[in-house]
Protein 1
Amino acid sequence: MNATSPEAAAPGRIVLLTTSHRVAPGLLSWPAWQALRSADRVLCADGAHPQLPYLREAGTAVDEAAPTAQELIDACAGGRTVVVVATGEGEPALTDGLARLAGTGRIPMPDLELLPASYDLPGARLLDLVQVMDRIRAECPWSSQQTHKGLAKYGIEEAYELVEAIEDGDRDELREELGDVLLQVVFHSRIAEEDPDAPFSIDDVAGGIVTKLIHRHPHVFGDETAATPEEVKEHWLRTKAVEKQRESVTEGIPLGQPGLALAAKLASRVRTAGLEVPLPTGEGLGYELLAMAVRAEAAGVDPEAALRVAARAYRDAVRAAEGLDA
């Protein structure tokens, strides 16, 4: 009787190759290409997998097959290496089947390697958000009818909820509210794509802010230096003034913001510009609040935030008077 050769008895090797749908197809790591080039067989259950055209263009033969766990083990017999290009779900049925067979202890198992062929870059999940928003805009009866004006109130609400989460120090709530604010940006950008006269996309929005940040940080991306936060602010204001070419320091201040915040912003612009502007005199509480907001800004205090802190204390006192927990 002939003895089985070591080569024939060798269990072989299975390489499960995973890729990210957020990375352009064909951009694979060098270890992934090495595994593909040295494989005895390459399998993929998804005939529409975005990587397949690029693999074949590179000379890699790919069999469109969905083997069972046992069939895959058999394909590795004789020490062969089989690479499985995983679908988006990661082949859970196949890996579960391999685990069950390994658990019996009766079958020589091939070496199993999980090889990430491409990785998500930081911010890659933003691509998912853009795709989800595209589908919602196209298929949701409510979302498909929304306009910039119709959504404006939600932007204000989400901004206030974000501020509340920050002031409460609630990290979970902060993460959620940041997502809600981000949704407003993506939603408005998606609506803007449909404008017949002046369309723009989320890429245009992102590109614009990237350009602005680089231009306004010459101490980071250019030859200027800034050793203190004050010097950074001077750079920012100087470049912003050149960009906007405003005639008045009051230009660009949204008059629709809360009154205390508006007064503080005006006072900040005046102080930064080195102007001497006497406060207007008049009768009534409004002028008193204006003077208080200006004093607060000069002292480095955000009057809007300070009033919210006091208002919360007042709320707690009201609840205590009602016999309720604060």
Note: The chain has three domains: 8-116, 122-200, 259-326.
Protein 2
Amino acid sequence: MENIHVKKGDVETIQMIQFLVAKEKERRNHRKKLSPSIYIVDSTLRNLSPNSFKPRVVAIGPLHKEDEELQDIESHKVTYLLDLFLRLPSMPDRKMDECIQRVYAKVEQIRACYAGEMKDYDDGEVAKMMVIDGCFVLEFILRKFCQPADAKPSGVSVSRFHSVEELTNAGVNFKRNQDERWPLAMEFKATWFPCFLWGWGKPTLTMPVLLIADRTESVLRNLIAYEQCSPLSDTLHHMLLPWIC
């Protein structure tokens, strides 16, 4: 009887191992089908200016989660999360639980968004991190202020954008955007009057103002890194690089 019990245990162990191996294969195959969209900046760029690619105040997501210099803000994230849910008209606890469950169901997709090696957090830790960090971001910046309510696709092709120098040489005027509702707005007006060769007859491009400050270098370097890492690098190259140059 004792030998039978041992054999039965061995069979159960083998079945359990086979089950775990099958699940791991399924997980890896699932991840291969999803393209990553969050990258660690290549060392070639990072070594030129390490501080440009390192968070200074808060870490969002797992890549810089363990940085000791960023731990002070972690407790404040929970405060932001509570403020967000307490503004709901009813049952904030229930809504929070629903949010956690939905994120937990997408853990594998979330993991697949990150390219490169990172600390091996378990599913519960990943779900908790995403909910807290996501709610912190939503509470910190309330997204409607970054775009107009009636925003529509412009339909303009991004296959070729001209630099500011080229547009100026072609006779385009530049005007500062003063729309407080949408500070990132851009507008192009091409009104030509045959009797005026200059002045009123020139087309005008209204665009945001770029303020040069201590953090400008970091912003521009991260835009370049994002352009080079993104799967849409060809499109972003035409969108970002002429603007930066």
Note: Confidence is low (pLDDT under 50) at residues 233-245.
Protein 3
Amino acid sequence: MFIAYVILAALMSAVLLSSAAAKFIRPKRLVGQMSTLAVPYSLLPFLGAVQIAGAAGLIAGSWWASLGIAAAVGVTFYFLGAVAAHLRVKDFPGAPPAAALAVVAVVVGLLRAATL
């Protein structure tokens, strides 16, 4: 189970860091999507920092289980917020990818909890 946690945590961290980089680089596609979701432009650096913290927590969770579980919970809530943001503006095609990432975050947390 621990190996599965490490692999999924690494993959989730890669997704989080990639998404965080986009929040700081601000490509036109991302800015347009955030406008559609009514997310203020000024919130992008905060969202990127939250994603970096989540990735760091998942990786550090390999050594400190409590931190890994807490990070997985935080990442889960982050992506549930993303699902809510998509549904709020009736962007139904955008909700399933965020929901899938929320489910993966739950699985990562459960895997880490199972290895205590």
Note: The radius of gyration is 14 Å.
